[in-house]
Design brief:
The complex is a heterodimer of chains A (315) and B (303). By secondary structure, chain A is mostly helical. Chain A contains 13 helices and four strands. The longest helix of chain A is centred in the last third of the chain and has 27 residues. The mean pLDDT of chain A is 78. In chain B, helix 9 crosses helix 11. Classes of the chains: A mainly alpha (315), B mainly alpha (303). At the A-B interface, helix 6, helix 10 and helix 12 of A face helix 4, helix 9 and helix 11 of B.
Chain lengths: 315, 303
């Protein structure tokens, strides 16, 4: 809660100082925070280490991109079996994008969740690669260069073009997810999910249909990540396969770990830390990644609870 | 005839994937560590090989240097980082080795710059060989296939005929027991890891003349390597061989012939688009099918 208030108040000093790029940074932090929090749902609570989370971002983002592109070009996405014109209308595109992301999560989850451990990690990675290659090969929709959007999706009541309003929109989405997620993990569903992480066999012996629960969690996380993808595409007014590259999945995973697994709020802090570090380290040296690598290794080896854990020792 | 050439190309890719995946599957199976940085050793092999070859003019010297560099780097990484990851959960391993990827990629860019390096095919392997009357195939690629098969034979002999191989196999089955029997497990692990990275370096230096030697090259082959291991069964070198050849063939033949195949059934640009997309995804679809039937891979290692 405290975090959300901080985030809500964040733009004020930013505007006063006139540093508009900080607002962009803040928006990106919110969006990646949403993606990381959704990963935390399945990872921190469900124990499913997915290296393919960026695929959902891609599905969401590309839905926005492709539909907008069709709108510019004035042609239909599909002429058969039904005519689907391109559109920039947020009310149509956004739910569709989230639905597609959830559908993709359901399909791949049904196959992936039958595996465990290392197999699961690699099969999620491979599915994400499949999505990456799929979108890279769509030459008519940008191919490996991606699609540039001329503007953000239109939503009623808001001027999405205004960075400030868009920031609050992202904050709203993140808030809903964090709030809903908070309730979810404390419900029976959430307890079953955590039980799956701890000892799935025991749950199955007790008669709980664990596969269904894990799949549902996976689908929910996929949908939330799809929404993050939609926001990301709108924020940067660009969609490209780079959004789906497996290093992107890895970055999100890093954010979860850095901020604190199993807390939902932690990953948002992790996103903030990582993105801020990227911004500022890049100013000092072009080769900042040489330091990020060992730093990450040290965090893994020695820091267990992440940043959130540093503040909340009682956990 | 084009088909036969593509089959050979597929074999060549398969052999390279085998070199990469043999080491990685051993590390997974015996040491239970997920090493995302395996591609970095491939890259080190390629860079060192390219540099030494250019400097000395001798491909063989470059090859030897690449192998040494990859093995040493591997053992160094094992001693410093990997050792602390045994027994940790997978997430920690993924993240730590991810950090290694960042580090090595950037280090390579710092030392060698951002421009890709070029490596020439050695003059005694340039030119083509006539394998069937009227069909020529690049000698260098045939050499790669040959080397790969030799390595497979060597590994087979190593595992089944030598003491070291026996220890490795025992370690794969029951780690604690062989430590209790007095075998130096730590040294064994370091050696296994070094062997794995040596093979990756070999793949890298052989790939040098064919592909561009640049900082991110490890990533693209690493994904395919994972697919091979998942299909073949984690911990099984035999599975790695079969999986690698299958993946190499599926990927190459898919990319070569799927677009044409689609043009037979569909017309126009839809066929091209669909064919091209499916071609690049063919390996992953293949993997999904295999995993749907056999979730543990083709040759799962039993415990």
């Amino acid at each position: 809660m405290l975090l959300l208030c901080c985030l809500a108040l964040f733009p004020l000093p930013v505007i006063l100082l006139g540093q508009d790029y900080l607002l962009t940074l803040g928006t990106r932090i919110l969006i990646y925070g949403l993606a990381a929090a959704s990963l935390d749902l399945i990872l921190g609570y469900g124990g499913m280490v997915s290296l393919g989370h960026a695929a959902f971002l891609g599905v969401g983002g590309y839905t926005v991109g492709i539909l907008a592109f069709c709108g510019y070009e004035g042609r239909d996405l599909l002429s058969w079996p039904l005519a689907l014109p391109g559109t920039e209308n947020g009310l149509l595109v956004w739910p569709l994008a989230v639905a597609l992301a959830m559908g993709f999560a359901a399909l791949t989850g049904a196959v992936s969740l039958r595996t465990r451990g290392m197999h699961f990690i690699m099969i999620t990675l491979a599915f994400a690669q499949m999505v990456y290659f799929f979108f890279s090969s769509l030459d008519s929709y940008g191919g490996s260069d991606g699609i540039s959007l001329y503007g953000r999706n239109h939503l009623p009541l808001l001027d999405t073009g205004s960075d400030l309003q868009f920031y609050y929109l992202c904050l709203f989405c993140l808030g809903i997810f964090l709030g809903g997620g908070h309730r979810l993990v404390r419900s029976r569903f959430g307890r079953i999910l955590q039980g799956c992480r701890q000892n799935e066999l025991r749950l199955q012996v007790m008669g709980v249909a664990t596969f269904r629960h894990r799949l549902l969690a996976y689908v929910l996380a996929g949908g939330a990540a799809g929404l993050a993808g939609v926001l990301l595409a709108n924020q940067g007014e660009f969609v490209g396969p780079g959004m789906i590259h497996w290093t992107r999945s890895g970055e999100i995973l890093v954010m979860v770990l850095l901020g604190g697994m199993g807390t939902l709020v932690g990953p948002v802090l992790g996103a903030a830390t990582l993105l801020t570090l990227e911004e500022y380290l890049a100013m000092y040296t072009e080769h900042w990644m040489v330091f990020l690598g060992p730093f990450l290794i040290l965090v893994v080896l020695f820091g267990r609870q992440g940043i959130y854990g540093m503040f909340h020792r009682s956990r | 005839m084009l088909f036969f050439e593509q089959v050979l190309n597929g074999l060549q890719l398969g052999v390279m994937l085998f070199l990469m995946s043999a080491g990685l599957t051993l590390v997974f199976g015996i040491m239970r560590v997920i090493n995302l940085a395996h591609g970095s050793f491939y890259m080190i092999g390629a860079y060192v090989g390219a540099t030494v070859t250019a400097w000395s003019g001798s491909f063989l010297l470059g090859l030897a240097a690449a192998l040494a560099a990859a093995a040493l780097a591997g053992m160094g990484v094992e001693l410093t980082v990997l050792r602390r990851l045994y027994g940790r959960d997978h997430l920690d391993q993924v993240l730590a080795t991810f950090g290694l990827i960042f580090f090595f990629n950037e280090l390579t860019r710092m030392i060698w710059g951002r421009q890709p390096l070029f490596m020439d095919v050695p003059s005694w392997l340039a030119g083509s060989v006539e394998i069937l009357p009227g069909i020529g195939y690049p000698a260098y690629r045939l050499a790669i296939i040959g080397v790969g098969l030799l390595v497979a034979l060597f590994l087979y002999l190593l595992f089944s005929r030598t003491r070291l191989g026996m220890q490795i196999r025992a370690g794969a089955t029951n780690r604690e027991m062989i430590a209790a029997l007095g075998i130096n497990i730590r040294l064994l692990y370091t050696l296994i890891f070094g062997l794995g990275t040596l093979l990756a370096g070999l793949a890298g230096v052989m790939a040098g003349p064919i592909l561009a030697v640049e900082a991110g090259m490890g990533e693209s082959i690493l994904i395919l390597t994972f697919v091979v291991i998942v299909i073949g069964g984690i911990g099984s070198v035999r599975g790695a061989l079969v999986g690698a050849i299958l993946v190499g063939l599926v990927d190459t033949l898919g990319r070569a012939f799927l677009p044409d195949l689609f043009r037979l059934f569909l017309a126009g640009s839809a066929a091209d688009r669909l064919g091209a997309s499916l071609a690049s995804m063919s390996v992953y679809i293949f993997m999904a099918i295999i995993l749907a039937c056999k979730p543990a891979g083709l040759f799962p290692v039993h415990e």
